[in-house]
Amino acid sequence: MSEVIDTHAGHDDHEHHGPDKGLARWLFTTNHKDIGTLYLWFSFAMFLIGGCMALVIRAELFQPGMQFVYPEFFNQMTTNHGLIMVFGAVMPAFVGLANWLVPMMVGAPDMALPRMNNLSFWILPFAFGIMISTLFMEGGGPNFGWTFYAPLSTTYAPDSVTYFIFAVHMMGASSIMGSINIIATILNMRAPGMTLMKMPLFVWTWLITAYLLLAVMPVLAGAVTMMLFDIHFGTSFFNAAGGGDPVMFQHIFWFFGHPEVYIMILPAFGIVSQILPTFARKPLFGYDSMVYAVASIAFLSFIVWAHHMFTVGMPLAGQLFFMYATMLIAIPTGVKVFNWIATMWQGSMTFETPMLFSIAFVVLFTIGGFSGLMLAITPVDYQYHDTYFVVAHFHYVLVPGAIFSIIAAVYYWLPKWCGRVYDERLGKLHFWLSFIGVNVTFFPQHFSGLAGMPRRVPDYAMQFADFNMLSSIGAFIFGLSQVFFLYIVIKAIRSGQQATDRVWEGAHGLEWTLPSPAPYHSFTHPPKVTDAEAHS
Amino acid sequence: MSVNKHCTGTRRLTIAVAVMLALLPGLALSQGIIFDDELNMRQGVTEISKSVYDLHMLILWVCVVIGVVVFGAMFWSIIHHRKSAGYKASHFHENTKLEIAWTVVPTLILIAMAVPSTEVLVDMYDTGGEDMKVEVRGYQWKWQYKYLDENRNNTFSFFSSLTTSINERENRVPKGEHYLLEVDEPLRIPVNKKVRFLVTSQDVIHAWWVPDFGIKRDAVPGMVNELWTIVPEPGVYRGQCTELCGKDHGFMPVVVEVLPQEDFDRWFADRLAAEQERKKLESMQFTHEELMTQGEGVYTKFCASCHQANGQGVPPVFPGLAGSKVATGPRDDHIRLIVNGVTGTAMQAFGGQLSKAELAAVVHFERHSWGNNAEDMTQPVDVANATAAN
Fold first, then answer.
1. Do A469 and B78 touch (CB under 8 A)?
2. Rounded to 5, what percent of chain A is helix, strand, coil?
């Protein structure tokens, strides 16, 4: 903390000084707000690139038959869409939000480790630059699905897989540094009186998420390193012909992969738990149980990984264990949903854009939770596994789940960030377009999956035609409405009305005690933490 | 499915939009629609697939009921507890009894779901006591079926690959009834017999799935997974590969024809006789025309998906054969490359997949097509010599 102040003291003694000018500000910044902004813009750019890939996929699947791309390229699109959305859009967006909000919420001037913060961001454009460049290499980019199962991703992979491995390593390093920083900030830089059980839920969910990241990103790094050795140094970790085991790859991958799923949803839980009380003008119901529920979900995420592998051929006892463990997740998740509804119950609700996105989150995430419960039932999962039912399930938890929460957060905190208010009418229009688009895209995929359409196919049998056409139309509606979102945000930043400090009538939390826009260094003197400004 | 064929694109769209609008408010509340084949899981024909379907419906209805209660409460609150209606906020933020209730009740519901799920799963794992064994082996991008005898030795085997033409796939001709779900030779099994499948793979991971039997298992190289089924009704059942396995993952269907016992026995005897005949061919000499005709057939089935029908390949991953060093170079090297494959590439070892007669024909065909004009002939005996010297 003192280090931050010292760094800047040399050239400006005044505490509320502004940032450097020009490009240098962004390249060398150690300021949590600047870095948060970089993360958010970067993730939005990735969101649009990954979204364009999704639209290539949906255009090809609009009708049966091959129309626009070859199967080889189609596989590169599905793979890169997944990788970019997971590692480039959702995760950096949450880190960006954490950068902006955690110091303001806990009453700190900045993040604990500002130089590492700069590094962890600036790794990302290079990682994704490398990964996207593989699409233009001889033999094409990664084409083995975002889960990159060996041996398709090793013995049978295009040459560019080595670049992919390097990019994943860089992303992992960035995530690990980001999470160390968040943990250090939360544990060391809270204002006096901000005890752990007074922290806003967004801070709590990020603390737990950061530990998940620390635990599993090295596992992912291990998996890709073993791939690298299989490909270039003649080892046989995953090569059956050399005594290796392709199934071991899946165990390692999903030991990373399942906690990763929660890494993408826990901060979303936090955001929604901040927004619902504000617009219900009523404190969050069951704060303690919310914290315990998030902790339980995080713990369970480590012992359910093989539910992604029910068809891989495990003994009966293994199948039963992973089925029961997976079903257990429904309990803490249910607690969270019930708490959110109890928060709304007998509130005095208004429905500004962040509230609309949050309510849609609760409803649509719950639908994704229902299909998740169905997928947990092993004997039935055999019929669902690797069909569009799974695609529908995880898009319901990730798009109207994670992405809606990020959009809600942007609308909610944008006035605090830039001191200007977005156009409410346009925000609501954006909400309804997104809501309709997302459901028209993904709801029919439940049906095509149940009827038997496998995922990751570039072409399909005639009986799946109706729902695919509908799904493609929805995807284009959803995709275009996100360009509209960009317009709304830029319009607010450039010419929005001046925001008040409190911004929302029902808002509680330290960040709302700061002026709008928030000063460059959030709290240079520790604020007084009153009960009213502790968790909402 | 039959409806689609008569629908134009726009009509299809209208129907689909109408169905969506009807369904969006509450997940499949309408019984009439949910039992339609296009909207729900298939019931299938086996006991297992039917119990899986029942389990699916049970859980679906549990979810629907919970959804109606939860979302009902939520929307009631949204309608009534709004500031614009003048509602004043309460300030409660905990209620221990309520919180215990909504932890315990879901736990009980989950236990109630776990019991029948466990029962069905245990039934599925009862793989013993089979009447016959078939090895199912995944290849990029086709299935091989081996009929095994008592000692798990191969009686005969064949490949089953997609027959939908590239013209249909690329929209140059109308698509047939079983577009992408048709093969040159289906797996044939007898009705009402317990058939045990030993599922494995030659290259990458595939997954073998027949929705109507309620069975799906990954085909993993170096590992043998077990599956079984008893099909009570003769018929043709179609499924697909369900694990991403590379370029043509979407083009390797699973087709199983279930025959009455006497039809199956007749077919089995014919197939066995054909196998003897095939072995005899390996000592014969063929004319250029015979080799070209047979070679083209083999090429189309086994080689064209990578090297393309015109021999141009898809460089750099799948090299062209027209004028290539291999197809215009020494014949025995050409034979050995096809027999042994190329390690670390998609080029498989075809020695175990094709007979010597087929290998000879396809080598001959490649050396005399697309402008390649080797002067040599390739006979089955040449294949035997080239590989023996290896």
1. no
2. 70, 0, 30
